[in-house]
Amino acid sequence: MNAAAPAEMTSGSNAALVTFIIYTLAVFGIAAMANRLLRGRSFMSEYFLGSRGLGMWAFALTFAATSASGGSFTGFPAKIYTHGWILALWIGSYMVVPICTMGLIGKRINQVGRISGAITVPDVLRDRFNSPGLGLLSTVLIVFFLVFNLVAQFKAGSVILATLLEGVSVFQSATTWLGDIMPAWSILADAQGNPIDAAYLLCLIAFGVMVVVYTTYGGFHAVVWTDVMQGIVMVLGVAIMLPLALSQVGGLERATRELARLKPPQAVQVTLSETARAASADGVIKAGTVLTWQDPSSDTTRLVRFPRDTAATEENGTAWPALEYTEAIEVEKFSTDADAALSAGVTGIEVTQTFSYVTGPGPNPSDVSGFLPLGVAISFFFMWAISGSGQPQYMVRLMAFNNSRTLRRAIITVTLYYSAIYFPLVLIFCCARVLMPGMQDQADRIMPAMAVMLTSNIGAGWLGGLLVAAPFAAVMSTVDSFLLVISSAIVRDVYQRNINPDASEQTIKRLSYLTTLLVGIIALVGAINPPQFLQDIIVYVGGGLAACFLFPVVAALYWKRANTVGCLAGMLGGFAAHFAMHLIGMQVYGSFVNAYRLFGMDPVVIGLFVSMLAVVFITPLGPAPPQELVHKYFYRSKAT
Amino acid sequence: MNELEEDPVFLNSRREAIVIAGLWFAALLWTVPYCYICGYQPLDDPEQLRTVMGIPSWVFWGVAAPWGACGLVTIALCMFCIRDDDLGEAPEDAESELSAQSAGDLT
């Protein structure tokens, strides 16, 4: 319906730029105020944990905004656009995410943190078991996973900013200048030797510098207050987009009906002659290979594409699983890549499963079994609600609220907040599939593109700035939290507790600033050659963290018999099982993010299961924990 | 020696965690089987798709409805089940208070 979006984006860009500048100034203002709070308080506790004093609104919104990452506003809309209504089920467990992630361990981890004086999650584990080794291992795991995620978030922030500034003349001039000088720097080239997109690079630097500076300067309170502002921006963005999308598409009923009529890629089996099979390299047809076939029964040209490397096996014999494309826009795009030699050997194409944007499992351009088979649907119920409880960046927030009344009220607030964001996003981007067809290749840009198009259509380009600020806010609020979790892990858990326990407050202060800055710069450099699939990286990291931390932390909080050896086994077991699924996926499918699904389950379920078994069965093999530790964390003096 | 009793915050938190895990499981049992049974059938004719307020009916009854129900149960749990417990005082707070007191003594 609207392929002229780029022109409209241009008209709205100047207004969007103004909104962005105001937003940036507000963020820096908040950081300056937060920095003042650092004076006169325990630096470490204030900088990394806000002195455990978060009230209801600050706690609720920082928790919600940290969770609503770049994935929520770039990867998630892209997935809705690509796979359709099935994303409602994929995200469905968000109905219980607030109560699970905040309620399962919130009150108890807050109390344990107060008993021991812990500031970070490794701190909690170290003190609870009196084990420096456990503290160090958890630090290493947190840094490993979150740096991964940080890179993905930097990419998201930069892509959004690039869309926002697309039509601004100053930005275009700067991009041209940078593009001219970049070929001289080999470091700024991708794996194929092509220069990195200058606009992306410029935005990466702007975004990176901004978020690193305000986080470094303001610490936890800056992060929390900007999260509150960002949380409000996000919900406002969705609240504005929903009615605009529904009215411009002509109502949700019409959007759903249109989606039902669209023909996504279908699963087929391609029959190849022996000659054609011999033409394939080592009996493997490479991912991305396109074949065309003149079907004599219908006298039409049919086009199929292999989403993965596909080997000849006993089972498939001469029939090879692939996806058939029928939409004109996709047929036109792929037909130029058709492999003539292999195409000549096609003797038949038979449809094995039809997909639709309005039913499960949903189409998937990279998998012939569709997007959300049953096992994966169950896995995602674990993924968001249960594994969300096992993420250290959320646990840290759970250690920061001021009392249990705040916790109760915050759970209600976040429940309402998520309901106002996630389900409406599904509605909005189902409409986007109808309103903005043909963006399959740039699905990661659908959120900002949709925001600008919706506002331009009603002549309110300035509003585009606010809407694009929503995903931008989402990314920022996640990046700043990760930065602090990583730097606190390094400063507190590595330096202060293992290298120099007597370090002065001044030294700790300088080191905290320096570490936050360095971690940010490392992530920024890592994002120059960014990973392609943002949401997949986030899913990998989220699953990995949960597999490592959930059961060891639950055991530490709720099981008196828990000991160091059991928790170590749980962490390592969870990590190894989760990582192994991805490694096997790399062997089988040729891609690390396409993990192997044992029993049809996502790696997170396998990782959690192995971690739980390790904790339950290894713990009794180790010695019982010292009585004084059990008394300290599970008993109190009887009131007389 | 002081007599000890089990920490009520630990006991309450554990009880609440079990109730919350039960809610999660109930949501899983409603959502995934319903969507699988009603929403995973191939659609031969797009016009046959049943909708409720423009939402495919399997999404409405399998996701939207339990979402609303879980929201209500969550609110009820927070209001009537989760206890207000005293979470104690962090060591750094105690130190701050102590130093404030000492400063007060000096002045």
Class computed from helices, strands and strand pairing of chain B: mainly alpha
The radius of gyration over CA of chain A amounts to 26 Å
Oligomer description: heterodimer
- Secondary structure: helix percent of chain A: 55-70%
Strand fraction band of chain A?
5-15%
**CATH level-4 homologous superfamily of the largest domain in chain A:** Sodium/glucose cotransporter
Secondary-structure-based class of chain A equals alpha+beta
Q: Which regions of chain A are unreliable across 5 or more consecutive residues at pLDDT < 50?
A: 1-9
- Tell me the series of helices and strands of chain B, N- to C-terminal: EHEEHH
Question: What is the tally of beta strands of chain B?
Answer: 3
Shape of chain B: elongated
Main-sheet strand order of chain A equals 3-4-6-1-7
Mean pLDDT of chain A: 83
Q: Describe the biggest sheet of chain A?
A: 5 strands, antiparallel
> What summary fits the major beta sheet of chain B?
2 strands, antiparallel
**End-to-end separation of chain A:** 75 Å
Give the neighbour order of strands across the main sheet of chain B.
2-3
Shape descriptor of chain A reads globular
Mean residue pLDDT of chain B: 86
Number of distinct beta strands of chain A: 8
